[in-house]
Amino acid sequence: MEDKINAFMEEVKGRNSHEPEFIQAVQEVAETVIPYISNHEIYNGKNILLRMVEPERLISFRVSWVDDDGEIHVNRGYRIQMNSAIGPYKGGLRFHPTVNASVLKFLAFEQVFKNSLTTLPMGGGKGGSDFDPKGKSDDEVMRFCHAFMTELCRHIGPNTDVPAGDIGVGAREIGFLFGMYKKIRNEFTGVLTGKGLSWGGSKIRPEATGYGTVYFAQSMLQSKKDDVKGKTVVISGSGNVAQYAAEKVIQLGGKVVTLSDSGGYIYDKEGIDEEKLAFVMEIKNKNRGRISDYLDKYTSAEFHKGKTPWEVPCAIALPCATQNELDGNDAKTLLKNGCICVAEGANMPSTPEAIHAFHEARILFAPGKASNAGGVATSGLEMSQNSLRISWTREEVDERLQKIMKDIHDSCIDYGMDEDGYCNYVKGANIAGFVKVADAMLAQGVI
Ligand SMILES: NC(=O)C1=CN([C@@H]2O[C@H](COP(=O)(O)OP(=O)(O)OC[C@H]3O[C@@H](n4cnc5c(N)ncnc54)[C@H](OP(=O)(O)O)[C@@H]3O)[C@@H](O)[C@H]2O)C=CC1
Ligand SMILES: O=C(O)CCC(=O)C(=O)O
């Protein structure tokens, strides 16, 4: 089996040699899915995984825009349309200086499996730009978004490809992007998700990724007759996913003690309650400030410059910032300090060495493609509401979100249970996600 996996990975590496993040994401899937394919006659000899690792379409384009001083800037825009076997391409847009083809291909590849796990009819895609919204005025962000959409609009549509937010793309950016799409195409359709509530957005979409991650952690703990209540929780990031993961933990009676950004982490040993979290939201969403500003109001908290929060003792860790933010040494520290559950809110935040350490220690570990699927699932619900031209209540959407997260958890158990009763959620998520897409690809022939 190892030979088969190695031969497959040699081919992937040969074709994508300068794309380390993409290779990392494919390796993790190959290790769990190739043994499954070998044991299931219908998938054998069809090169399905080789077809799945090649994007159906990779679009790259120039984005020129003018800053407030009249200077002209050029950024690179992308959309990776990875797989449309089970529905229109669906996945976020990331605006961050580290964006390149490798990062977006890993995200698009993960998205295919994640979207399949939601049980909703969505293919996988991802896009974005190396544009950095940090330090830009609202007008500059608007001009960039408008310029980006003048090109992207010809490649997307409500039945073709439906982008949404990701790092650096929130409600403000979605508004600007939607405005330009509507103007050029002269249509008001559900072409983007994460829209404002008064113009087609779904209730709970802003909360969904963070809430869903905690619902998933709760399901894992409940499978061990345990609970979030009373547990100390370490969270990284302080953006959309981290904020609402913190909110749900607080609502369920857990104690959140950290949040972070690329400058470092804050540690509040008293716990970040609802009032303190509201201040974090003001810092991040309104003032567009730094997490260290937290100490302006809550002076007894500590700020650890340039560090990640994994050194803080906790029972539950929720990495909610970015890829490869938690390495093998961090994992060992978490385990030494008594961590029993890790649920990824970010995409691929744990390195392969960290995942290996969690598995070896037999703790509960959920990969992002399962535990952070609540965001895109609620985007799927937004698409349904747009098509039906109706709007569900907060309670209705939250109920559906909870059911979807529970069903994803159960699918992981179905496909990921080891003989000794330990659930390998990575294996479970990869195989459950693969089966639905592979069956659709088989039915549709070699295209
Ligand atoms: N939004 C969504 O619905 C979904 C998001 N995700 C994933 O969740 C993660 C967070 O996304 P989201 O909250 O939306 O993004 P935001 O832009 O709202 O927040 C990102 C947070 O991560 C921090 N961060 C980003 N890059 C780094 C880095 N290199 N090192 C340290 N910290 C970093 C940011 O800090 P700083 O401000 O200093 O850059 C910020 O606190 C991403 O992995 C994303 O792909 C997954 C599913 C859905
Ligand atoms: O809601 C969406 O379509 C995007 C979600 C996303 O980008 C993700 O799940 O990583």
Ordered list of secondary-structure elements with their pairings:
Layout: H1 2-15, H2 20-38, H3 48-52, E1 57-66, E2 72-83, E3 89-95, H4 101-117, E4 124-129, H5 138-152, E5 161-164, H6 171-185, H7 205-222, E6 232-235, H8 240-251, E7 255-261, E8 264-267, H9 274-286, H10 294-297, E9 302-305, E10 316-318, H11 328-336, E11 341-343, H12 352-360, E12 364-366, H13 368-371, H14 374-388, H15 394-416, H16 425-444
Parallel strand pairs: 3-4, 3-5, 6-7, 6-10, 10-11, 11-12
Antiparallel strand pairs: 1-2, 2-4, 7-8, 8-9
Helix pairs in contact: 1-2, 2-4, 2-16, 4-16, 5-6, 7-8, 7-14, 7-15, 8-9, 11-12, 14-15, 15-16
Bound molecules: NADPH dihydro-nicotinamide-adenine-dinucleotide phosphate (NDP) and 2-oxoglutaric acid (AKG).
2-oxoglutaric acid is lined by residues 90-92, 111, 114, 164, 166, 193, 347, 372, 375-376, 379.
Domain Glutamate/phenylalanine/leucine/valine/L-tryptophan dehydrogenase C-terminal: 202-445
Keywords: NAD, Oxidoreductase
Protein name: Glutamate dehydrogenase
Distance between the termini: 28 Å
CATH topological fold name of the largest domain = Rossmann fold
Instruction: Give helix % range.
Output: 40-55%
Secondary structure class reads alpha/beta
- Computed Rg: 21 Å
CATH class of the largest domain: Alpha Beta
Please give the oligomerization state of what you see: single chain
Our estimate of the beta-strand percent is 5-15%
Instruction: State the total count of DSSP E strands.
Output: 12
**Largest sheet, spatial ordering of strands:** 9-8-7-6-10-11-12
What is the overall shape? globular
How many domains in all? 3
